[in-house]
Amino acid sequence: MDPDVLKAMYRRWLHEEWGAGDYAVAEELIAEDLVDHNPLPGQPPGRAGEVWTAQMIRRAFPDAAFRADVVISDGEYVIGRWTMTATNTGPFDLFSLPPTGRPVTMTGQEIFRVRDGRFAEVWHQEDVGGMLTALGLEPPQVLMRLAARRSARQYRRQKARPAPA
Questions:
Q1: Torsional sign, CA 56, 58, 62, 64
Q2: Which of 95, 73, 96, 68 is nearest to 84 (CA)?
Q3: Residues 133-136: contacts with CB under 8 Å, at least 24 apart
Q4: Other CB atoms closer than 10 Å to residue 111's CB: what's the count?
Q5: All domains of the chain, ordered by start, with CATH?
Q6: Contacts from 40-49 at CB under 8 Å and sequence distance 24+?
Q7: Are 76 and 113 in contact (CB under 8 A)?
């Protein structure tokens, strides 16, 4: 696929879905069976999980504005780094936290692999610790709670798998 088309798709995803809350754009840009290689606890699979995450962030930060800092593509992958500025005026469901009213600047990046003109796989990383610090929260305690939930879930999954023969 044309690298410039992929870069435009990334910017559209970032600004329209995440920045403006237009979740219908996900139907055009995200494969229904999107594979998220590092999903959040409780995140549904596929496109539905990607929209679920965007909705959760927009509930916590209704005025979120996203800036694409860097966008690179080779025709199969598109890589983007962004900066979000926002104010926490809604509940932050992921951490079960009430609004703080504080402004925050957060950065993150994604690597999307494209299949049939849609984002099919994603690897991402966000500066959650920096965001929590900006909100006046104790990142180590909150992140440890989140990590414990994720570890317990992964342990349950492994236990449910049949042993290799």
A1: positive
A2: 68
A3: 134/102, 134/103, 134/104, 134/105, 134/106, 135/88, 135/97, 135/100, 135/102, 135/104, 136/100, 136/102
A4: 15
A5: 3-127 (3.10.450.50)
A6: 40/94, 41/94, 41/146, 41/149, 41/150, 41/153, 42/94
A7: yes
Instruction: Report yes or no: 114 and 6 within 8 Å, Cβ to Cβ.
Output: yes
Q: What percent of the chain has pLDDT over 90?
A: 71
pTM, full prediction: 0.82
Could you report the per-residue pLDDT of 67-97, keeping only the tens digit for each? 999 999 999 999 999 999 999 999 988 877 8
Which pair of tokens denotes residue 114? 């494209």
pLDDT score at 164? 60
Identity at 153, one-letter amino acid code: R
Q: At 157, which amino acid appears?
A: R
CB 120 within 8 A of CB 35: yes
Decide: helix, strand or coil at residue 42.
coil
